């Protein structure tokens, strides 16, 4: 099938020859119209570049053709590069586009589109001029009035802004938004009484709607009148049946939250969750917001548990709620409960890949590696096109389970599925990669090669570990995790280190720390590389900084290796007592470590 361009362009050349030979205005207009209609077709096919070029040809063929001038001028103005970006050329683009607006001043669409261009260019006065001219021809068009209202606000012409707002209301009626906008204008002017007066007008206009009373309450709170706001919120809530008014109760709860009243905040949130006029999605989001605040403030988890129970009673079979419950349990470090909740979600809806990934991750956190791997295999069966994240988590499960071969098997499957032609035991196949590597998956592949390297090293195969680290760095030379792990494994194995390997480790660890200077693990590796180089004083400074940063983290985790390394470094700095202190600290966190027992008992340093 021939492409549209192969048909249209030869036709265009044929008409062009005719125009040249006749050189008549009619022929030029005919050719310009042909270009214009072809451009419209390209635009409809989402081929904007070709359309822009044909609009240009249409205009240049016949500069009196206003429709072509309009389309070309708009696109010309939007080119933010080269000579067309200069102030003079942008002004010329505007003049070209305005031909159509001046020719048909009452035509709504081109005038509004042109005014939008002017607004984006901050040519507000001209935009107002165009829209006021359009209003003369379309006095009852509220879209025109709405744009004018916005432009007048932007130009601080408050009287005109109010006039256009009132004109639109005279046509469509005075709805709640009308009074809110008027109040917003008065608020911007700093007129407190006028702002509150607009809220009172809203209440008078819609006496049975709680929205006006809530609006007044929010304004009163803004003007530092919390007692008055409390009364207004109470009146708004009283307008609704006790079992309803969920939206009012949410606003009331937020008022208490902003004033630090956690007891009443909890109570109103509880009432909102029970309200029968709020849908599940709103209640779910309300609970998620509540829980996030609770966790950020390190509040009493019992408060969150109580609210969760309320929603679980109402929606026991909502998979999304079970998923939220699992994430809440993880935040509380209750991984067993998290697994139970996400397992329930999977039973309710096994088609969501996110749930399977959550289950695998929670098993990883709870050291239930086999169970996590079982979730992976079930996910493969249930999800037709399971994403790469699931495979990455499954590989991590194999590594953490001290089964690196299982991890390598998963990683091999991952490469075959997502990057055909790549193998875990070979350098990158660049020709094959050209067909699969994209801007969206490049980081995933670099991270995958890093994890393959970790698994190979754990399997006792440093040669293939280093090969995969090289693969990772070929794709992303600035991956701090790859740089760090590669450096560490180069120096951690054996009593002596090959000088060339030591030099490489030095370069890798230095780059990792330069990229993330406050990452404790990378500093620990850096200190250990310096130690292996014999730079004991610098190693001590770096390791002390690593421990300082580690202890500032919310969950420092296993600190035994940090203490052990610092003990070794202090020993080589002839600080035996301090070295013993840190070896003992390391032993307290890792009591089954035979090497640490040996160091403490013999008060001397032993290589691992």
Plain-language structure description:
Helices cover 76% and strands 0% of the residues. With 608 residues, it is mainly α. Among the domains are: 1-103, Alpha Horseshoe (Serine Threonine Protein Phosphatase 5, Tetratricopeptide repeat), CATH 1.25.40; 478-608, Alpha Horseshoe (Serine Threonine Protein Phosphatase 5, Tetratricopeptide repeat), CATH 1.25.40.10. 39% of the residues are buried. Residues 1-22 have low confidence and may be disordered.
Helices and strands in order:
Layout: H1 4-22, H2 25-44, H3 48-61, H4 66-77, H5 87-103, H6 108-120, H7 124-137, H8 142-154, H9 158-172, H10 176-189, H11 192-205, H12 210-222, H13 226-238, H14 246-258, H15 262-274, H16 280-296, H17 301-314, H18 319-331, H19 335-348, H20 353-365, H21 369-382, H22 388-400, H23 404-418, H24 430-433, H25 442-458, H26 462-475, H27 480-492, H28 499-515, H29 520-533, H30 536-552, H31 560-572, H32 576-589, H33 594-602
Helix pairs in contact: 1-2, 2-3, 3-4, 4-5, 5-6, 6-7, 7-8, 8-9, 9-10, 10-11, 11-12, 12-13, 12-14, 13-14, 14-15, 15-17, 16-17, 16-18, 18-19, 19-20, 20-21, 20-22, 21-22, 22-23, 22-25, 23-25, 25-26, 25-27, 26-27, 27-28, 27-29, 28-29, 29-30, 30-31, 31-32, 32-33
């Amino acid at each position: 099938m021939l492409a549209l361009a192969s048909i249209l362009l030869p036709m265009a050349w044929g008409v062009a020859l005719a125009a040249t030979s006749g050189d008549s205005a009619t022929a030029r207009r005919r050719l310009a119209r042909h270009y214009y209609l072809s451009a419209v077709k390209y635009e409809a096919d989402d081929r904007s570049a070709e359309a822009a070029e044909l609009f240009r040809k249409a205009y240049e063929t016949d500069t009196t053709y206003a429709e072509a001038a309009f389309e070309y001028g708009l696109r010309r103005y939007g080119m933010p590069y080269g000579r067309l970006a200069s102030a003079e050329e942008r002004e010329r683009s505007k003049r070209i586009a305005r031909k159509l607006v001046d020719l048909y001043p009452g035509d709504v669409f081109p005038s509004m589109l042109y005014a939008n261009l002017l607004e984006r260019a901050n040519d507000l006065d001209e935009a107002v001029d165009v829209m006021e001219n359009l209003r003369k021809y379309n006095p009852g068009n509220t879209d025109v009035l709405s744009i004018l209202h916005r432009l007048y606000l932007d130009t601080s012409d408050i009287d005109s802004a109010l006039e256009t707002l009132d004109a639109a209301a005279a046509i469509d009626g005075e709805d709640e938004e009308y009074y809110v906008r008027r109040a917003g204008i008065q608020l911007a002017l700093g007129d407190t009484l006028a702002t509150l007066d607009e809220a009172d007008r809203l209440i008078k206009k819609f006496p049975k709607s709680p929205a006006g009373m809530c609006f007044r309450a929010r304004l009163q709170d803004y003007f530092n009148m919390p007692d008055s706001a409390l009364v207004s919120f109470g009146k708004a809530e009283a307008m609704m049946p006790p079992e309803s008014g969920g939206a009012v109760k949410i606003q009331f709860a937020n008022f208490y939250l902003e004033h630090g009243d956690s007891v009443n905040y909890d109570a109103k949130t509880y009432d909102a969750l029970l309200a029968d006029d709020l849908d599940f999605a709103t209640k779910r989001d309300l609970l998620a917001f509540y829980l996030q605040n609770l966790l950020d403030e390190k509040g009493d988890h019992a408060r969150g548990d109580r609210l969760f129970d309320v929603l679980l009673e109402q929606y026991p079979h909502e998979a999304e709620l079970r998923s939220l419950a699992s994430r809440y349990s993880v935040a509380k470090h209750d991984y067993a409960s998290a697994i139970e909740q996400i397992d329930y979600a999977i039973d309710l809806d096994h088609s969501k890949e996110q749930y399977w990934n959550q289950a695998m991750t929670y098993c990883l956190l709870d050291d239930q590696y086999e169970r996590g791997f079982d979730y992976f295999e079930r996910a493969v069966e249930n999800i037709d096109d399971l994403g790469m994240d699931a495979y990455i988590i499954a590989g991590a499960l194999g590594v953490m389970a001290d089964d690196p071969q299982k991890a390598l098997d998963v990683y091999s499957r991952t490469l075959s599925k997502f990057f055909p032609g790549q193998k875990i035991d070979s350098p990158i196949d660049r020709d094959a990669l050209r067909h699969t590597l994209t801007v969206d998956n490049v980081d995933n592949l670099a991270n995958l090669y890093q994890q393959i390297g970790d698994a190979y090293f754990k399997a006792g195969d440093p040669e293939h570990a280093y090969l995969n680290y090289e693969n990772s760095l070929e794709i992303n030379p600035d991956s701090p995790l790859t740089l760090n792990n590669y450096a560490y494994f180069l120096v951690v194995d054996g009593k002596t280190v090959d000088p060339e390997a030591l030099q490489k480790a030095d370069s890798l660890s230095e780059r990792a720390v330069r990229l993330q200077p406050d990452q404790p693990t990378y500093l620990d590796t850096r200190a250990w590389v310096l130690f292996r180089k014999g730079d004991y004083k610098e190693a001590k400074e770096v390791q002390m900084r690593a421990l300082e940063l580690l202890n500032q983290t919310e969950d420092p985790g296993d600190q035994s290796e940090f203490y052990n390394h610092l003990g070794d470094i202090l020993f080589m700095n002839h600080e035996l007592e301090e070295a013993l202190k840190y070896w003992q600290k390391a032993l307290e966190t890792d009591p089954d470590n035979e090497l640490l027992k040996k160091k403490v008992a013999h008060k001397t340093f032993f290589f691992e």
